[in-house]
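Look over this today:
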Amino acid sequence: GHPEIFPLLLTAKTQKIFNCRADEDVTEENCFKSIKKEDIIQDLKTRANTSDFHPLKKVILEYPGEELLVVFDPKLQYGQNFYIVASEEAKENLLKLSATAEETEENREETLEGHKAWVSLGSEKEVEEESVKERDTKIKYKISRVRRKFGAPITFTDKNASDDKDSYAECTSYEDNTFSIKMIERDVGVQTVPKVRETSTQTKWTYPKNASTQYYTRQLSNEAKAETLSSETLKEFLTAVHIRMEIALQQNEIMDVFFDDWKALAEDECKPDVYLKAYQSFTDVQYLKNRTISCVRWHPTIYGIIALSAREQPSYEEQVNLSNKLLLHQSVILILSFFDPICLQLVLKAPEDIYCFQFSPSDPNIIAGGCVNGQVVLWDISKHEEKLQSALPVADEINDLSEGEPTVAALVTEVIRGVMPSPMQIQQSSTEPSLVRYCAASSIPYSNKKPATDMQWLPCNSEDDQKGDENYLQLVTCSPDCSILFWDIPSIEHRQKFLSEKIKEKKRSHMPLDTDEDLDLSWKPLIKINLRERDTNTEYGPTRVSLRELQYRYKTSGKAKSLSALRTPIKESPYTEMSASSSKNLEALENISTNFFVGNEDGEVVYSDWKMKIDTHSKKPMHSQKYTLHIETINTLQNSPFFKDIFLSIGGQKFAIWKEGVTNGPILQSSCSEGRYTAGQWSLTRPGVFFIGRDNGNIDIWDLLKKTHEPSHFQNISKSMITFISPSSASAEQHFLAVSDDLGVLHILEICQTLCHPLSNE
C-alpha cells in the first residue's frame, strides 16, 4: 500500500560504514537516518554487487533529492530490518509525524514534573505484614453418623443453654501423646546426587574405509605333534597340576561353589521364616457365587472338618435401609472336609442368610446360628457324625465308589497343595451332599429386630445336667437393635419325636407334608436386656459381645412342660426382665463374674455389669464405662485364650488390647492405618501373636514381643476384602488358619513353626 517504501537488508558492516547501527545509532524511538545520495553511489562503485544497496540501485539513481531517508524497522513491518523512502513527499510526512509525537511526549513529561512524586515511607511493608497468607496445611475431618439414624425424623425445640449443663460442650486444649512418644526406630533415606555439568564434544569426521581381517588356525604337522607330546616340559606340567585338578573336580561334585555362605548366615540371624503357606482353597458356584462368606468355624473334635456360612453382598443403600427383600438363593451352612475337597459333606438349610454360627462346646453335633432377620436356628447333625468321621482322602475314596452314574458336583475347588485331580476323578468322586434341615427356629416376633451379629455359648452347669433340667441358660445373642437375648436349648429328642408324630398324623389324614411349616416356632428367649441408659437416654447397638463368665440356674416349678404345651400361645410377656419380679426364679451362682464387654455400631467399647450396683456415696446407680476409640463398627471383640481378663477389639482403622480392671483406657492401641481392619483373631498357641485381616486382602501378623508399632509381617491372601479369620490347632506340629474373602473363597493356610511355638515366659 506504500509504493514509495522499499525494504532493505543492511548488514552489520554496512551499518557501521553509514553510522546506522541498530539499537545504537538508530533505535525504535529514533528510527530515522538521512544518508547522502553521493555516499550511497560511491559505495555502489566501491563494492559493486556486494553492496547492500545494489538491489535498489535503479531507485537510488532516479531519486531527485540529495539525501535519502533510511528508516530502522525492528519489528520487520516491511519484511527487512530497514527500508528506504523513495519520494520527497513521503519523506516530509514521516518527519512531521515524528516531530509531532516528540512534542506530545515532551508536554506529557512537563505535566508529570509539575506533580509531586510519591515517596515510600514503609507503608507497603505494613500492608504486606497484615495480609493473610495460608502457611499451615489444612486438617481434614471425617464426620460419620450412626447407620440407624439415616432418614430419621428430626424435631427442633427452643431451649436455654444455661439451664442444662449438657446443652453445650467446651473444647479445652489437651496434651497430645502422639508428639511426646519417643520413637525407637526411624526409617531415614539418604540419596547422593552427583553434580551436573553441561559439556559438549565433537568428533572429527573422517572418510570411511572398507577393511577386513581373516584369521586361520595354526595346524601342526604330525612330527611337531609327536615332539610336543613326548617333550619333558609337558610331562612336568601335567605332573605338577594333576593333583590340584583332582581336588577341584571333587569339590565341584561335593558342594555348590556358587552358594553364598555369608548371605545365608545373615538371613538366618536377621530374618526368621515367618509365613502363611497356602494349603487349600474352596469355593462353590451354586452356594457361594456373588456372595460373601460371613462366618467360618472349625469342628471342635473331628480333624479336617470346617463349616462356613455366606450371605448376600448388600450395597451401601441396602445396608442403610435394611430392607428385607426376597432373594433368589438358598440360605445354607456348608460343611467341608480336607480329605474330600471335591464334595460337600453336609448342607445345613436355614430360613434366612446366616450372619454367625457356633458349634456347641459340650455337644459338637449341635450348631446354633443367627440369621440376618434376627432369628436363632438350631441344627442337629448327630445322624451324620459317622459320615464326617469316615471322610477319606480323594484317592482312597475313588477306589471305593460304586459304578453307578454319578451326578455333577457344584463344588469348584482349587487344591493348591498336592496334585490337582483330573476331570475324570472329579466326575467319579462327585456325590450329592446330605441336606440337613434345622430342628428348631425361634419365634420371629420375639427374636432380634435386626441381624444377630454375634453369639456365645455359656458354660453348662454339671449339677443341672445330672438333674436333667432342660431350661438352664446356654446361649447369648446380641443385635444392633440394642438388645442382648439369653436362650435355653430345647430338648432336641422331644422335638424330633413331636415332628415324627406330626408327620404320621398328616399321612393318616392324607395331608401334604411340609417339614418347614411343622417346625416349632414357639422358641422364645428367657431373658432380654436392653442396653439403654435411662438417665441420658443413650442407646448402645451391640455388634459384638464378650463374656468372661456367666452362668445362671433357672428353677422350674413342677414337672417339665411338654412340647405341645410350649406350642400354645403365651399371654404373658415372653421375656424375663432382669429388674422385674421374674428375678425370683433366677439364682445367681456364687463367685461368678458378671462383667462383660460390648462393641457397638459407633465404634465404642462398653464395659458394664449385669448387676445394678449403687454408689455408696451418692446413692445413685453406677453407669457403664464407655470408651470411644474406634471410628467405625466393631467387627472383632475376643478375649485371649491364655488370659481371661485380656480382650482384643478391632474396628475401622485401629485395634486395641484391653485389660479388665484398667479403667483409664486400653493397655495398647494402634495408630490409624491406611486401610480398614475387617477381621481378627488371637493365636491359639502364642499369647503375644494375633492376626488381622484388611480390606485390601492382606493379613497382618502382629508379634508383640518383636514390634508393637507395626506388624512384624504381612502377606497378601486375596484381591478382595478379608471377611473372617478362624485358627485351628490340628496337632502339635500342624496349625491352620482359615481366611475368607468377599468373593466367596475360603483359603486354608498352614501357619509356620515360628508362629506356633511360644517363647520362654511369653
About this structure: Residues 284-319+329-389+433-460+473-492+518-530 form a domain with the Methylamine Dehydrogenase; Chain H fold (CATH 2.130.10.10). The mean pLDDT is 77.
